[in-house]
Amino acid sequence: MPSKRPIPSMRFYAAAVMLSAVAGLTACVPAPIVRHEGASVPQQGYGGARERIGDIDFWTHGSPPGEYRVIGYTTVESQDDLIGRRILLSRVAAQVRRAGGNAAIRISETSKPSIAYQAGGVSRIENRRIVEIAIIQYRD
User: Fold this and answer.
1) Residue whose C-alpha is closest to residue 76's, from 89, 63, 60
2) Domain that holds residue 112
């Protein structure tokens, strides 16, 4: 005789959907931009690798050739997959524009697992990519 597993109620599914929606919305809220404090001393970069997002440069390795100054710092987060990478780049650009900068320099990048949602006893785990950046302005 097959075992009868209780069927989750509609209320349970509604709660799971709401929890997923809230988790998704909190990932869209940008982290605060922390302003750089101290002397605004120009720094000299020596080049590296960059990705261009519209009018914003994202220096993934190294720093821009020439002089620049750091104006702030923030953290950007997205899913750790191909689509998440594109989302991450657009979030970096949005944060740089919001702070009045021209570019970002990656300080660090980590990945952590997180539970995306849990329904019917099944959890879906996804990796989150977390990137700390310095927001900079180029010196003319």
Assistant:
1) 89
2) 31-138
Global pTM reads 0.72
Question: Which whole number is the average pLDDT over 4-17?
Answer: 55
31-72 pLDDT, tens digit per residue, is: 888 899 988 789 999 999 999 999 999 999 999 999 999 999
Residue 6 pLDDT > 70: no
Residue 130 belongs to a domain with what CATH number? 3.30.110
Residue 31: which of 90, 92, 103, 79 has the closest Cα? 92
